[in-house]
User: Fold this.
Amino acid sequence: MDTLPENIRLVHDYWHELGAGEAPERALVDIAKLKPVLGYLLLIEFKDDPFRVRYRLTGTIVDRMTGMNITGRYLDEFATGRFAEPIQYIASSYRYVYDTGKHFIGHYDWPVDVGVVKRSQMGLFPLRLNGSIRQCLSIEHYGQFETERKPIDWRPALPAHATEKTGKSVGERIGDKNRVVPLRAGR
Assistant:
């Protein structure tokens, strides 16, 4: 794990400490311990019948990278056009942590333009509610992608009602918009 980006490593180590490698109860998570990476965090809620991934809370950097606040939305809403393949991969990664209770660290290639992709890394860390896997603490690392790309305009791909504002992200709510750990390509 020496090549993990620092923000993913921080969440991995914290999650592992809470549950000794097993998915801990959500109530044990002290968000203050993750303050340096709040902008990159997502709190995911799993829905059943059919299985869906809902963004319960999203950090300011995640919102900036997606071009909108995605809190309250479902991952599959964004599985359109050239985004369908990476979204399906991300959804299957969430399904893995939901089914197994184990964390997942991986990467995906995100299309930034026709024929151009950027590699992003993610860490998915399942959480229990009353003993069952119901949520996931997720973190993303965009690397160079973060400073180079322009936000995606999702408006043409989503229904009109889906582009209305859904509120503020986690970092905005706690007044911690720009305090994040500087990211490095690796250690």
Notes: Helices lie at 6-19, 60-66, 84-100, 144-148, 170-174. The chain has one domain: 6-171. The beta strands are 41-47, 52-58, 104-113, 116-129, 132-141. Confidence is low (pLDDT under 50) at residues 165-187.
